[in-house]
Amino acid sequence: MLAAVVLVTAGAVGGWWWSSRAAASPTAAATTSTQLVAASLGTVKQTVSASGTVEPADTSTASFTSSGTVTSVDVEVGDTVTKGQVLATIDDADLEDAVTLAAASVTAAQDQVDSASTSESLASAKAQRASARSQLADAQAALAGATLRAPIAGTVAGVSYAPGDSTGTGGSGGSGGTGSSSGTDSTAAASSTGIQVVDTSTWVVEASVSSGDLGELRKGLQATITPSGAAQNVFGTVRSVGVVASSSSSGTASFPVVIDVTGTPEGLHAGTTATVAITVKQLTDVLTVPTQAVRTTDGATTVQLSKDGTITTTPVTVGGVYGTSTVITDGLAEGDQVVVVTRSVPRTRSTTSTGSNQQPGQGGFPGGGDFGGGGPPAGGPPAGVGQ
Q: Would you place residue 103 in the very low, low, confident or very high pLDDT band (cuts 50, 70, 90)?
């Protein structure tokens, strides 16, 4: 979903505090650390989160277009093939005979045209020749369909033929026994009968986003992709944003988003899950401070400014919250030192043997809900920003 960064950050901190308190002794004291951080110019981003799978950008399935008995299958899963390479064949003896007979019919029809003595007989002979030529073309196509060839260059991902199998007409392929299901339909769109070839030189991520994020997305946005188990991120560009929703098992609506992976990164595998951060807004050369340094008290947004050994509370104008960074549009200058206060609770080994991390008497936050007895830095993030 759209990165409501303030809420996400607060949730993460709250989750850490709870797990820490659950394992801490009742007498553990909170510790506070203070540091000075300079306001600096930088780049901030606002992103939409998506999840999906990595798939080859081009997937094709070759199926026999002629009836017959499979005589050979020349590839297996994992083989690398070139476009037009022979994948399998069927018995073509009857198909060759059909071509020979059709060719003889064309010759005979041509003889009739050559010997016609009247306009009527000539017209009839030409019609018979056209019919014979059409039948020859069909016979030649059927013979070509007895040899199955790779529709694209790539890697064999599936083989459903074996010697001795019978094939029927009406496959997804065209003349020559090559079928194609190109695009981003992946293995789900492949024919159940055929030899599937995937091009692993180009990839896409087939992702989905919630309806609340749909309005933020458009073609051409940049994305950072984190494949499951990958050592490093890859990058991509939004190719398309769907407008028809699909419902998940939970009943929530989601919309498909296709992202083209940039370049030819190594280590990607078809079907791998991935998380995606799509950049919907980016600001460069803006003045930022750590989000923890900004406070809102009684409607006033401030930071603590350290100058010449003196700390003063300084009003500031916030331009936006982007995760751990907050943009300041007025009230500070580059290089100004602001105070950042962090608070933590020491963790100790839990002594409970009941399977619960909660100790007797720990019904919640100590002292009526304070964080470690002293509470978080006063006020929290600036009100109304990043909500």
A: very high
